[in-house]
Specification:
The complex is a heterodimer. By secondary structure, chain A is mainly α. Chain A has helices spanning 2-14, 37-55, 62-68, 73-101, 103-120, 127-138, 143-154, 160-192, 196-203, 205-221, 230-236, 244-252, 255-265, 268-286, 290-302, 307-347, 351-375, 384-406, 414-429, 454-459, 464-468, 473-481, 490-493, and strands spanning 436-437, 441-442. Chain A has 23 helices and two strands. In chain A, α7 (143-154) runs antiparallel to α8 (160-192). The radius of gyration of chain A is 23 Å and the shape is globular. By secondary structure, chain B is an alpha+beta fold. In chain B, β7 (129-138) and β8 (144-149) form a beta hairpin. The chains are: A mainly alpha, B alpha+beta. Chain A: Residues 479-507 are annotated as: Disordered.
């Protein structure tokens, strides 16, 4: 017992940032690289950035690739859909892997397993092989889930929205940066003396190497939890190796996860769709040249540097004052406004107004992504990984759906497709009104009159047998820390848990 | 009345401006040049190895003075309809400033009345596709004023195929495979290291 006590004291002193009872950081210092919290933050956003660069490395070089591989517009469209559909199941699988093996091993492994798809892009020689490499490269976007899971494991409720928003946003930046990086790398290689049909192939080694290196960084420099890695903690008994079936059951049985998965499809999914179609839209409708179209396309993705983090920060600021109800209202307002600007984008006819509307649209849609992940860490404690995975997967499903319905074939002109997509955003976002947390309330209702507490809600995920063995200890700490979601006025007045109360089961 | 005159005058000037700024419509061009090329219908040519011999000149059945405005001639390699199908970036548009049918210039010379010929080795930039050859005659302002082509108006005869260089090299292939193998082996290595760490913690 003595030894344990001393170990805990030394843990308290050794963190560079302020921590709570779970040793999660209560502050977020962007320019620090201190282990484990800020170091994990930088490792995770950089590797997620690398995966985004790889997944969207092909679009800016398509004018060359389509000539080399003799692709038709249908081939290109299908490859674009394949690139985002691979991650649908990968993201759910990643959520499970994080719950079971920890985000460090899960993300490093996935990043390494998808790097061959990037290298093999250099060898593709037909429409089918091109589609396959884009499909498998797209699996790497599942590292989004490990990023969000990792941040949720290391940062407390006070700053989790910020940490998730910045990590997610700076990772998504890769989708914009690649539209600038790949053409530059291609030009450089051609300048050295390669023929253009060889130069584009060599160019793909850059994202491949970047991905491989980032995986090594995560494995050797990262740590799953404030107190150690999953493998160490599993053995010492501090972290129980959970039962997959139970974790899965609590994730899919929680309707809030499904609602947020749907709405994420209409902020993040829309962002992916736009990444795939916007350069061609400006090129065709406004007759700008390919380089200009690429710069405009890049600026949409580059807005992520502040807009998604901004959404996360906004979620935390609103959450501090108004609690979970504030987070939900802000998410609904921002995402609905994103839909309004999307409708406008399809309607405007002049180039400069169109670029301005696109930039405003990008800010709202990306902020909505950040706001979504300000809510996700509170949906489930035990099944955080799978819930994050489901939401992330929902994002990709949204991208597949919108591209298939509005941007494939000649049924709608691109501008009509964009406007209709905006209408769909507004309709699908309205389901946020259905989210209700008994301990905090929803958009239109206050907390339950039965006096449900955070503990009641989170403890309902564990059976009494499991509680007897003490598996729920981490969740207990989390419930206590999540009381901040009541908002400022209510923290003192809401009911506190008494030891002998029997918690109810909540859906 | 005056406003109508002003509107009409503006429209007229704008139309002239359009012509000055190269908005020529292909359907307005007379086919006064005769062009023939060495590849036979359906022949496959290899980039960098095979060459095309093009012969062009004025069609003598046109009256004297037809070619007075002709200043320059450009010979171009143009996509046949089958290679334009489902590929909007190669689309045929009547407005020549937006037309993407002919993307490669074989030769660019001053116009003289005699019949010319030249041999052109197919450049490395040319992608695999089905083509024909077209010649445009330009006036001194740089606008197209006439054309000739090796195929018929429907672009269905005398088409030849060009086979491009692959762009794949053995060294690139080997590098791809090596880097991929390294990544996969590293993933396996990570698992083994992790398991060893688990056992060490146990002890």
């Amino acid at each position: 017992m003595e030894i344990t006590g001393n170990a805990e004291e030394s843990h308290q002193n050794k963190f560079a940032l302020g921590v709570d009872s779970e040793h999660k950081a209560t502050e977020f210092k962007l320019f620090s690289f201190a282990a484990p919290h800020m170091r994990a933050f930088h490792l995770s956003w950089i590797s997620f950035f690398a995966c985004f660069v790889s997944t969207f490395a092909a679009p800016p070089l398509l004018p060359i690739i389509r000539d080399d591989l003799d692709l038709t517009a249908t081939d290109i469209g299908n490859a674009g859909i394949a690139a985002v559909s691979g991650a649908v199941f990968a993201r759910i699988a990643m959520g499970t892997a994080c719950d079971l093996f920890g985000p460090r091993l899960a993300s490093a492994t996935l990043t390494l397993l998808t790097a061959p798809a990037v290298y093999f892009t250099s060898i593709s020689n037909s429409a089918v092989s091109f589609l396959l490499v884009r499909f498998f490269t797209g699996f790497s976007l599942a590292t989004f889930v490990s990023t969000q899971f990792w941040m949720s494991s290391l940062f407390s409720g006070r700053v989790v929205g910020t940490a998730n928003g910045v990590a997610g946003g700076w990772g998504n930046l890769g989708g914009g940066a690649t539209q600038l990086i790949m053409p530059l790398v291609f030009d450089l290689i051609k300048h050295i003396g390669a023929n253009r049909f060889t130069a584009w192939r060599i160019a793909f080694f850059i994202p491949g190497l970047f991905q491989t290196l980032s995986a090594f960084g995560i494995f050797f420099l990262g740590q799953d939890l404030p107190d150690g890695n999953y493998s160490q903690l599993h053995k010492s008994g501090d972290k129980h190796k959970d039962n997959f079936a139970r974790v899965f059951h609590h994730a899919v049985g929680n309707y809030r996860g499904w609602i947020l998965a749907l709405t994420y499809g209409y902020c993040f999914g829309v962002e992916l769709t736009i990444d795939n179609i916007i350069a061609q839209y400006f090129y065709d409708r406004f007759n700008v040249n390919l380089n200009t179209a690429g710069i405009i396309a890049a600026s949409f993705g580059l807005a992520n540097i502040f807009s998604r983090p901004g959404g996360g920060i906004l979620s935390d600021v609103v959450g501090k004052k108004f609690g979970m109800r504030g987070r939900l209202w802000t998410l609904w307002i921002v995402q609905t406004l994103g839909g309004v600007f999307c409708i406008l984008l399809g309607k405007v006819g002049s180039l400069s107004v169109s670029i301005a509307v696109m930039l405003i649209f990008s800010v709202f849609v990306q902020a909505a992504c950040g706001l979504t992940f300000g809510v996700i860490p509170f949906v489930s404690s035990r099944s955080l990984g799978i819930v994050s995975g489901m939401t992330g997967a929902g994002g990709n499903v949204g991208a597949v759906l919108t591209q298939v319905i509005f941007f494939r074939g000649s049924k709608y002109s691109t501008e009509t497709g964009i406007t209709l997509m905006g209408v769909m955003i507004i309709c699908c976002t309205s389901v946020i009104m259905l989210i209700y947390f008994p301990q905090w309330g929803g958009m239109f209702c206050g907390p339950s009159s039965k006096g449900t507490t955070e503990e009641d809600y989170y403890m309902s995920e564990w059976t009494s047998a499991e509680k007897e063995k003490g598996f729920h200890r981490a969740t207990l700490k989390f419930s206590e820390n999540s009381r901040t979601e009541r908002g400022i006025k209510k923290v003192e007045s809401a009911p506190t848990p008494t030891p002998d109360r029997t918690p109810n089961t909540y859906v | 009345m005056e406003s109508y005159l002003l509107a009409a005058a503006s429209l007229f000037i704008l139309c002239l401006a359009q012509t000055c700024y190269g908005d020529v419509l292909f359907s307005t061009l007379p086919q006064t040049l005769v062009v023939s090329a060495s590849p036979m219908d359906g022949q496959v040519l290899k980039v960098g190895e095979d060459s095309i011999r093009v012969t062009w000149g004025l069609n003598q059945s046109f009256p004297e003075g037809t070619d007075a405005p002709y200043n320059e001639v450009k010979l171009k390699l143009c996509y046949a309809p089958i290679s334009q199908e489902d590929r909007g970036w190669r689309k045929t548009v009547d407005n020549l400033s937006k037309d993407r049918t002919c993307q490669f210039t074989i030769s660019h010379r001053t116009y003289t009345r005699i019949t010319h010929n030249l041999t052109w080795i197919i450049e490395s930039d040319v992608p695999t596709a089905v083509y024909f050859v077209r010649a445009y005659a330009y006036n001194s302002s740089g606008n197209e004023v006439a054309y000739g082509q090796t195929t018929d108006t429907k672009k269905s005869t005398n088409l030849f195929k060009v086979q491009a260089i692959s762009g794949r090299h053995l060294s690139v292939d080997i590098a791809s495979i090596c880097f991929s193998a390294f990544a996969l082996l590293s993933a396996v290595g990570f698992f083994l290291v992790e398991r060893r760490g688990k056992n060490a913690a146990k002890n």
